[in-house]
Design brief:
The protein is an alpha+beta fold. About 15% of the residues lie in helices and about 30% in strands. The chain has a 3-stranded antiparallel β-sheet with strand order 1-3-2, covered by helices on one side.
Length: about 70
């Protein structure tokens, strides 16, 4: 997974969200839940660590913009 850089969290209201879940469907359901409440830059795929449990999904969130933006 890429490094989180300063621009991703440069001001209050910006966040990087990383979801750890048992499967893709659960991870994407969490992303959709947050997308309904605020603006996100969605992820289109999950990652898996070899030998590790479940999947991870990372996306970016902006609390200052509406979900429709």
């Amino acid at each position: 997974m890429r490094q989180i850089n300063d621009a991703h969290v440069a001001e209050p209201g910006l966040a990087v969200v990383e979801v750890a879940a048992a499967d893709d469907a659960t991870a994407f359901a969490i992303q959709e839940l947050l997308a309904a409440r605020c603006a996100i830059a969605p992820a289109d795929r999950t990652t898996r660590e070899p030998g590790g449990p479940g999947v991870r999904l990372r996306f970016f969130l902006n609390l200052h913009e509406d979900a429709d933006t």
